[in-house]
Amino acid sequence: MTTKLALETRELKPGFGVEVLGTDLTTADDDTLAEVVAAFHRHGALLLRNQSMMPADLMSFISLFGEAEDHTQKQFTLPDYPKVFVLSNKIVDGKPIGAHNDGVGWHTDYSYKEKPVMSTMLYAVEVPDEGSDTLLADMCAAYDALPDDTKAKLDKLVLHHSYQHLMSTRDFGRMELSDELKAANPDVFHPLIRTHPADGRKALWVSTGTVKEVVGMPNPEGLELVDQLVEYLTQDQFVFRHKWQVGDILMWDNRCTLHTGTLYDDTKYDRVMHRLWVKGDKPF
User: Fold this and answer.
1) What are the residues facing 124 on neighbouring strands?
2) Domain for residue 224, yes or no?
């Protein structure tokens, strides 16, 4: 009789996230993969280093967490793999191969959708020697640290999210939406305090870029409140900074984390990342 070995892990930061050590996703057995998935759901973020993943491998792995989500912009998905989105500054044959500086600014993915994505996964193909770190903020820890009277005040608030607002005001890749994209991405309304469906924990679920207003609160007062909350929850005590290496897989739960990319010298370095999403549920 063989003894099942426990998954070897270490925290990304105290109380948040986990790195899985010594596991090759392309050769791991079903029991090990099930433990990896469970570790993600327990800790809110997951890191595995030294992986060698083809697009088919990425699709196989992401399917363990749920159904892969589509992308709003289709021009930067991989041929034959429409669920794999490319983030890159590289130009090939005069055309960009991926979205550049996408994801810079604290946000949760697809917050402008009725059902935002549950999880985001990034796989590092090429990384700069410096810069391009990804930062994750623990929105549950930030909520738990709030005074009770502040929690009660914020629990009543609803945010108006808008893809059109995001794309017309963001710093990088600003664009006017086509009628087709407008129709496919109508404005939505989500609670500022989100409840995790798995265990009931509360998250300070704010985001920048997509938030057009706090319902019932005039601007600029409403947006100033959002900015104050983002500043609060992105303090060092709540944030994990990931420095990329080729072969890294980093996943996070968008229901309880806020994230941002960071800039790098795109005249000196190339960057290629593959991004996949898992379908999510309606915030409550």
Assistant:
1) 273
2) yes
Report the side by side order of strands in the sheet with 16-20. 9-13, 16-20, 45-48, 249-253, 119-126, 272-278, 81-88, 77-78
Among residues 253, 227, 229, which one has the least CA distance to residue 240?
253
Q: Give Cα 103 distance to the centre of its chain.
A: 9
Per-residue pLDDT of 7-39, as tens digits, reads 999 999 999 999 999 999 999 999 999 999 999
For 41, the domain range is 9-277
Query: Structure pTM?
Result: 0.93
CA distance 198 to 164: 31
Q: What is the largest CA-CA distance in the chain?
A: 67
> Rounded to whole angstroms, how far apart are CA atoms 129 and 117?
30
For residue 91, count other CB atoms closer than 10 A to its CB: 11
Under 8 Å between Cβ of 120 and 280: no
DSSP-assigned letters across all residues of 156-180: T-EEEE-HHHHHHH-SSS--PPPHH
3-class DSSP state for residue 104?
strand
Q: How far apart are CA 158 and CA 136, in angstroms?
A: 23
Q: How many angstroms separate the Cα of 121 from the Cα of each of 76, 109, 146, 209?
A: 16, 11, 29, 21
User: For residue 167, what is the domain's CATH number?
Assistant: 3.60.130.10
The proportion of the chain whose per-residue pLDDT surpasses 70, expressed as a percent, equals 98
Residue type at 115? K
Cross-strand bridge partners of residue 98: none
Burial class of residue 97, CB neighbours in 10 A (0-12, 13-18, 19+):
middle
